[in-house]
Amino acid sequence: MSEPTLRQRKQNLAKTSSSGSTTKSPSRSPVRKASSFGPGFYVVCCLVLSAVVFLYPNPATELLQTWLGADWGASLPGGGADSVDLTADVAKRDAVVAAFKHAWLAYERDAMGDDEYHPISHKGSNLTEAGGIGYTVVDSIDTMLIMGLDEEYQRAREWIKTKMTLDRDANFNTFETTIRVLGGLLSAYHLSSEDPLFLERATDLADRLLTTFETPSGLPLSNVNLAIPEGRADSNSPGLVSTAEVATLQLEFRDLTMVTDEDMYWRKAEKVMAVIKAATMPPGLAPIYMNYEQGRFVPSAIRLGSRGDSYYEYLLKQFLQTNRTEPIYRQMYENAMTAIHNHLIQKSTTAGLTYTSELIPERTQEGELAWRLTPKQDHLVCFLGGSLMLGAVTAGAVVDKVSIPPSPNQLLEQGIRDWSTGVELIKTCMATHDTATGLAPEIVHFRIPSDGLSEFMAPTDWYIKGARKGAPASYDARYILRPETVESLFIAFRLTGDRRYRDWGWNIFQSIEKHCKIASGGYASVINVDEVPVTHEDKMETFLMSETFKYLYLLFADSSVIPLTQYVFNTEAHPLPIFNPTIRTGFS
Ligand SMILES: *[C@@H]1O[C@H](CO)[C@@H](O)[C@H](O)[C@H]1NC(C)=O
Ligand SMILES: *[C@@H]1O[C@H](CO)[C@@H](O)[C@H](O)[C@H]1NC(C)=O
After folding, report:
1. φ and ψ at 240, to 5 degrees?
2. According to the UniProt entry, which residue ranges have a biased composition of type Low complexity (predicted)?
3. Is residue 504 part of a domain?
4. What's the structural domain count of the chain?
């Protein structure tokens, strides 16, 4: 496959960089007015969303036609199942294994046991001064099991056995510790034929994490002091927890209940879902912050990016983990996806790229609540393409087992809708790789008529805000080794057998090799995807080894490796087995 063509983009956008945080100064974009903050928030929310929809026509009505007339050709309907080849591409798969080893061996040489790794200075660091908790080792170990790296696995296991301790007198993020460390331990437990070491460590960690759930609402606090242990509120946002953080613990805690036969973990995690369900009003979208005293949403951004993303991801995955036996999760998932289609999915002006926008609440000068539709899409949102396709062939299917690829008559109407949107969103995410490095930026903005930019400043459908030649790179311009696009490519390939997903994944992998690889070992983030030669940031995020290289490996591996019919991946790419639950969900 050829390298992506370079956009002839002028990089002189006279705009300030966005920081990725939720607060934005008011802009000239259309602002919808409504009444003030307060108990009527949800009524306001609904009214305003309706107004927004009026301005941005709902694309869902066109989707069936898109499907039938799309460039899917022979792979739909009645197409291609016999010619689908889901066997390994051995050479590419093995190239990914070599890359993983290049990352791991450098970490092991320079920083074994430290939480994080800095490949340029050849140093490790810990999340807190109280000492490491095995963040990188535990996050990486199931990838070794999947790749068959037995020697590396044995050394990592030995470290967990002899060196790992959770007696660290400092605050750790509840969500990050759950998805990376608890998820990693549970996945290692399952993939190692139930090595009791991993279960013992997982139970120890989960028991400490349980202290965060001691709030009036049952929503867990953002942090935990692991040594005491005790839940701790986040002093940066008093009284609040983020929606994705409280709603992305359920796969892990439920799995622990299944393996220990101890109900408590399940109940605590599920209470959160009941609180969210009770707090959610039509049209089914969830703002990114909740109040943990009352268990209510507070006016805050609505988006599929940071602090929102994995809430939606886990709605589907909770339905899948329980072997599709819990209609409540299917219903919550379907409501959310319909709301996303009605309110957040947009099409770009020239190339017609499908993307998701954000809704940002603002106060007008009169102190009234107003919502601003912002055409900003985080790289994080790129999980959604694959997730929608997976949802379409499960929650959105009329049969238990769809063909590969599925045909429209196997899917419900919303399954067809979600599948089509998923396919389109992946294309959009690939379009954001059209940069000087072939790597996608952290955040992209799409052109809208009211953005005040000229054709000269941003000739394409999307741009990196704040990017300017000669100026320091904007926050948005970085690539920090994120996995979300290759995660979607892996799922799309497994569900279609369409080779182009492997081709796209290979292109991304080659860009990582070319621009992120450090000769002396490890991989580093790039601070501007549109500049070659690149400037590195001295950091190798742990999700490179737990997610990015794992999903790339699985993209090129035989489809019998971690089949999607038997496993769900937690949001850190740790596979957990699907099971038939013996406990029923206690809310409706
Ligand atoms: C991280 O914590 C571990 C355990 O306390 C310690 O041995 C190691 O030196 C720490 N690493 C750094 C870079 O401080
Ligand atoms: C999931 O349910 C199906 C029946 O719908 C059953 O055949 C399968 O064995 C179940 N899977 C597990 C892991 O229990």
Report:
1. -115, 155
2. 15-29
3. yes
4. 1
Give the position, in ligand 1's atom list, of the atom nearest the Cα of 114: 1
Peptide bond into 405 cis (omega under 30): yes
Options 270, 313, 484, 547, the catalytic residue: 484
- Report CA(135)–ligand 1 centroid distance (Å): 12
Map residue 360 onto helix, strand or coil: strand
* Catalytic residue flag (residue 176): yes
3 is catalytic: no
Known active-site residue 424: no
Range of the domain at 131: 6-12+64-577
Q: Would you call 584 exposed, middle or buried from its count of C-beta atoms within 10 A (0-12, 13-18, 19+)?
A: exposed
Mind spelling out the 3-state secondary structure of 398-431?
CCCCCCCCCCHHHECHHHHHHHHHHHHHHHHHHH
Nearest ligand to the C-alpha atom of residue 582: 2
464 domain-assigned: yes
pLDDT at 160 over 60: yes
User: In this structure, what CATH number is given to the domain that contains residue 355?
Assistant: 1.50.10.10
Q: Each residue of 438-458: pLDDT tens digit?
A: 999 999 999 998 888 877 777
DSSP state of 368: -
Taking the C-alpha atoms of residue 233 and residue 224, their distance in angstroms, rounded to an integer, is 8
Domain-embedded: residue 387: yes
* Nearest ligand to the C-alpha atom of residue 578: 2
pLDDT band at 35 (very low <50, low <70, confident <90, very high): very low
The answer on whether 571 is annotated among ligand-binding residues is yes
Q: Is 234 a catalytic residue?
A: no
Residue 41 has pLDDT above 50, yes or no: no
In short, whether 134's Cβ falls inside 6 Å of ligand 1 is no
